[in-house]
Write a structure and sequence with these properties.
2 strands; homodimer; mainly alpha; two-stranded antiparallel sheet; globular; 321 residues
């Protein structure tokens, strides 16, 4: 079994050494190479490789699936960054910011299709892998659309929010694991348990991210906290605070949402605490984490083989608050 | 054998009756339905069905391929329209114009993935079909990128231009035919001849389009001519005129390119004629048309079975000048 660190390193060297793009037209492929060589955590392809290694020595099919997943993920990031008007990704200018809107759109498009070119190399269970991948990619688009829609809505419930982050974030982690399992001949039940493990882990991770953005240690995070608050982003914390607030608190929250002052972040944090949204967010993280670990435990494979997956889940979920 | 008109009607009713999108999120799927229900000529899916019918009764696999092709084509139109800042498509507002940039990007993305969902239903020769489709989709992106690049370049040769329109326009016609043939068990040579037929037909069609935009009968075209000239678009005519022009003519062309006057279109048309770019464009149309019909003739299938394909090619290429 390979450790998390080993697999990240193997993926990194194999992936960047064999990027599928030709030299020309360089106006489309240079930006693609630029983004992919900035790195990234490579969590998703590594989950695929780990899930595969539960069942067999990592196969060529699993590598093709892992490449396809990483390309799909980056395609969605390129287009999301356009829609979010994000200037930076991985600490460097985003593609549309550096090369313009046309490059942003076309590089995303071509990267999506290269993802399918990697998948098309899969020999075993191609139709099943393709169906899962398609379903997941559709869900990611739907999740992004819902996220955009939420900006203009004032009636987003916790249920709506969980549904949105499930689609936007969790299903790709889940799909990565299941694709690795299918490529390794993993039986239906194991593959489905791994899928549920990834889905719950993704939810726990996203909710933790919401919490850390508000209450995280600025030094450890490497960025100022309160970014979501400043942007009026509808996070678990804000939705829950509005849900729990009494009439006075609700008015205070709504007043702060209209403000752009120094006191906005500390004011909102105080309201998150007063309404107990902070505690409930931490409880939700713990609850989804527990469900994730329970699902992993249920996979009918000797416990020691699951060690790398546990290690990765701990890395993602046990970050200090 | 079904006629062109029959197949367009069958495709239209089957496709619009079974669009693959769910009801929600309506913010992503309403614009998709809007565009697809505006119609379009449906040339590409019909080519796929016709090529399939050369070899067998039209199969479910061929229908899946035809659906996938039409979805891919519309995905590229949605994103091209954003890049071209086009307000209208099929006489109605484009998606990004009617619903905004986010909808334009995401509807394109999700439509591309639904194209793959249709393909994934194919039972026979899925890996071959998928590889051809991927290769073609990549080429279309490259063609669009080159087209965008050409706007800022002053050294585009006829060879560059033919390469660009091959990628942007012709390969999808070629791919549509070859996919229909592969789905029908068409042998390699027949499938490749059909591919070449489509490629040459696409080139002839695009060059004819360039010619008609400049010299076409305004009444028959249903639009003012000279649109490409007004937009300084690098067409076969402009590139060829610059190539053929003597020093004085070249200066006149360059002067007109900087103008935005009433006399720009008639002035440029006169120069296209003086430099014989007009005649050479018509000759190129005739030459690619001949190559197309020769390729179709070479397909080892009784001539009468090819009648619908001939009918469609004639419809596309024999438009009055």
């Amino acid at each position: 079994m390979h450790s998390f660190t080993d697999l990240v390193a193997s993926f990194e060297s194999r992936f960047t050494a064999s990027l599928p793009f030709p030299q020309t037209p360089e106006t489309i492929y240079d930006p693609c190479r630029y983004l992919l060589q900035l790195g990234g955590k490579r969590i998703r392809p590594v989950l695929c490789l780990m899930a595969n290694e539960l069942f067999e020595d990592i196969s060529e099919d699993a590598w093709s699936a892992a490449f396809g997943i990483e390309l799909l993920h980056n395609f969605t990031l390129i287009h999301d960054d356009i829609m979010d008007k994000a200037p930076l990704r991985r600490g460097k200018p985003t593609i549309h910011h550096k090369y313009g809107l046309t490059a942003g759109i076309l590089c995303g498009d071509v990267m999506c299709i290269y993802a399918y070119e990697e998948l098309a190399k899969i020999k075993k269970s191609l139709p099943q892998v393709l169906q899962l991948f398609n379903r997941t990619a559709i869900e990611i688009c739907e999740g992004q659309q819902l996220d955009m829609d939420f900006e203009h809505r004032n009636d987003v419930s916790i249920g709506d929010y969980i549904h949105m982050i499930t689609l936007k974030t969790s299903v790709l982690l889940a799909c990565s694991l299941k694709m690795g399992a299918i490529a390794g001949g993993g039986l239906g039940d194991s593959a489905n348990k791994l899928y549920a493990f990834g889905k719950n882990m993704g939810l726990a991770f996203q909710l933790q991210d919401d919490y850390l953005d508000a209450f995280g240690d600025t030094v450890k995070l490497g960025k100022q906290n309160g970014g979501d608050i400043k942007a009026n982003k509808k996070t678990y914390l804000l939705i829950k605070a509005l849900e729990n607030a009494d009439v006075t608190q609700k008015k205070e929250i709504e007043k702060l949402l209209k403000e752009d002052t120094e006191s906005k972040v500390p004011g909102m944090l105080e309201l998150y605490s007063k309404t107990k949204a902070d505690i409930q967010c931490r409880e939700a993280v713990a609850q989804y984490s527990k469900m994730a670990f329970d699902c992993l435990e249920d996979v009918a494979i000797p416990a020691k083989r699951k060690h790398p997956l546990l290690e990765l889940a701990n890395y993602l979920l046990m970050r200090e608050f």
